[in-house]
Amino acid sequence: MKIGIIGLGLIGGSLGLDWMEQGHQVWGVSRQEQTCQIAEERGAVYQANPDLESLAGAGLDLVVLCTPISAILATMERLVGILPSETILTDVASVKAAIVPKAEAMWPYFIGGHPMAGTAEQGIQAAQSHLFRDRPYVLTPTHQTQAEALNELKPLVMDLEASCLEMDPESHDAVVAWISHLPVMISASLIAACWGQSDPNHLQMSKRLASTGFQDTSRVGGGNPELGVAMAQYNQQALLTALGDYQDQLDQIREMIEQENWLALRQLLEKTQEHRPYFIK
Ligand code: NAP
Asked: Does pTM top 0.70 for this prediction?
């Protein structure tokens, strides 16, 4: 197939690498000439150009919007008049309810999407093959979705060796608030609290002693700040709900420790040990 990717960063570049490897022809657009050049050199695209107009007349079957969340709808607006209206469009944004209804109103063949994989890095240099292998890839079709568009998009998701799931945009946002956006805020708070400890010698030693435990728990808090802000901005209510419940949980743990209720703490930790494998297979 001929696929357009707009925004050649971690996600756009990684999609390009896999689809090119599968024999699809990927046309890229990214603002910087240098990004386009690197994407071509790395084999993430067949060709790339900073000009959106370069996609006109390419005969693309599908275009994937992989820009930061804040640029997705504005980029779509610019595509009206450049691409034939029957081109299938999808996006990869980490939030869906703020995008899907407006995107569908603008483009009849739009389907929201969210590949559930990432790293703490950003930009085209961070793109990697097989990033989405064995990871969930959520599609958010609605009653307006054209069946033929969904049928064209699904095999491309399967080409990534991802597992394709369908959800409505609101349910998607409620769920990712818990398992993606809340962890970013918790992890960031952990780094900030450790960095803010009052004894400079302890801080110095903390940096030296931090090992696998800190590496695991701080990873998502050390990622792309623009993405973290967008998660909070575009999924504010669901994130606030999750943060409130998390804060209650922390208060309970604090109380158990203050009151030396080791039995209650042990019971809680036994439960969390039992439950974790249900989230992380
Ligand atoms: P990223 O690495 O920063 O890549 C975004 C790229 O888009 C940049 O490299 C930038 O390159 C380009 N860009 C920025 N504004 C643009 C515009 N107006 N038009 C065209 N290109 C533009 O970010 P990312 O992590 O790939 O995130 C991209 C999208 O994926 C976001 O919507 C995010 O919600 C979603 N997502 C991210 C993750 C994750 O864990 N990172 C996971 C799933 C989904 P130039 O400077 O060359 O323009």
From this structure: yes
Q: How far is CA 159 from CA 7, 132, 235, 271, in A?
A: 20, 10, 29, 37
Ligand 1 atom having least distance to the Cα of 231: 34
pLDDT of residue 281: 78
Handedness of CA 159, 162, 165, 166 (dihedral sign): negative
Ligand 1 touching residue 184 (CB < 6 A): no
Q: Is the CB of 118 under 6 A from ligand 1?
A: yes
Q: What is the mean pLDDT of each run of 10 residues along the chain (281 residues)?
A: 98 98 98 98 98 96 97 97 94 98 96 96 98 98 96 97 98 98 98 97 97 97 96 98 98 98 98 97 78
